[in-house]
Amino acid sequence: AVNRAILTEQMTSWTFDSCAAESGAEGLKVLIAAAAYGVAVDCVVLDYQMPEMTGAEMARIVRNTEGLADTPIIMLTSVDQSLANTSYRDLGIDAQLIKPARSSALLETLVATIQRHRHTTSGHAVQPPAGEVLEVAPRSPLAVAEQRAQLQPPPVRPRPPATVGGHRLDILVAEDNEVNQMVFTQILGETGYGFEIVGNGRKALDAFGTLNPCMILMDVSMPEMSGLEATAAIRLLEQETGTHVPIVGVTAHALKGDRERCLEAGMDDYLPKPISPRALLEKVERWVGAGRQVHRNAG
Q1: CA atoms lying within 13 Å on the CB side of residue 219
Q2: pLDDT at 231 over 50
Q3: Is the pLDDT of residue 228 over 90?
Q4: CA angle 81-86-91, nearest 5°?
Q5: What phi and psi values does residue 99 have, to the nearest 5 degrees?
Q6: Could you give the CA distance from residue 23 to residue 117 in angstroms, rounded to a whole number?
Q7: Is 30 left (phi over 0), alpha (psi -120 to 50) or beta?
Q8: What is the SS3 assignment for 279?
Q9: What pLDDT is attached to residue 81?
Q10: DSSP characters for 165-230?
Q11: How high is the mean pLDDT of the chain?
Q12: Which residue has the higher pLDDT, 229 or 12?
């Protein structure tokens, strides 16, 4: 969890749109969903040592999954893990870094890998550097096929209209990052809750007035109007109506004091990135119900 948070912070500081997953299976679901929604993934950074599925196993599945096979992969390995017998080409790994990787080395490797992939796909064949990665037992075609079948994203339930017969929208999501929009869609789409996604704080403020949501998931850092500014504006409007919609702040900066900063801005709760499906659903179950109760009391 700590390493994921550090990597997320680094990606944010380099202005990369990124998404972190807590396991290989979760990462594959994100990649498959991204392909389904037409969201291009420029590179995947894998940790070799992951629970249930190693980075090497995930790399093999990516290379054998239609729509993902050409995605560049960077592997992070530990010093004490032996490097032998399995070449980059066998696993389809584009680059490898030893942990803890220097920030400058990671950035340089990311840029070089993405550029090399773009040159290759534009018709200029470029071979990956020679080298070796961790030895793993080859997976049989049947095992790969079974894994791919298990990882097909569940059908997304049709979203209810924003308002039907006076009913309120369940969840308003304010998020400017296209990858995170896709993650929210994938997770919330399986719940049956009605939700809408907007791309900045100003649109969130407008949607608050028209959709009357039961709760808002508000990214803190957005263009035009930040999540903190949008929250302050919503709270001012609520002073006139006597209502209160629960707002959960979402931020990539997993730093001490972030929760307090969100609460001081008028938010009710805080959700750190990378977005955990479990944590997100816990927040939704808690605050959608609370928002509905407040609406009933006000009515």
Answers
A1: 26
A2: yes
A3: yes
A4: 100
A5: -80, 145
A6: 25
A7: alpha
A8: helix
A9: 54
A10: TTPPPSEEEE---HHHHHHHHHHHTTT---EEEESSHHHHHHHHHHH--SEEEEESS-SSS-HHHH
A11: 78
A12: 229
DSSP string, 105-146: HHHHHHHHHHHHHHHHHTT---PPPP-EE---PPPPHHHHHH
**Is CATH 3.40.50.2300 the right assignment for the domain spanning 2-150?**
yes
Question: Are 172 and 215 a contacting pair, CB within 8 Å?
Answer: yes
Q: Where in the chain is the domain with CATH 3.40.50.2300?
A: 2-150, 171-298
Q: Considering only CA atoms, give the Rg of the chain.
A: 21
- Closest C-alpha to 60, from 129, 155, 134: 134
Residue 122 has pLDDT above 70, yes or no: no
Structure tokens at 32: 């498959």
Query: What pLDDT digit, counting tens, does each position of 152-210 carry?
Result: 444 444 444 444 445 678 999 999 988 788 888 888 888 889 999 999 999 999 999 99
Selected residue with higher pLDDT from 244 and 186: 244
Q: Residues 254-296: pLDDT tens digits?
A: 556 777 888 889 999 998 877 778 889 999 999 997 766 655 5
Topology classification of domain 171-298: Rossmann fold (3.40.50)
Q: Report percent pLDDT > 70 for the chain.
A: 76
The tokens of 194 are what?
């009605």
* Residue 216, beta-bridge partner list: 172, 247
CA distance 47 to 53: 10
Classify residue 64 as exposed, middle or buried by CB count within 10 Å of its CB (0-12, 13-18, 19+): middle
Q: Which residue in 274, 247, 240 sits closest to 262, CA to CA?
A: 247
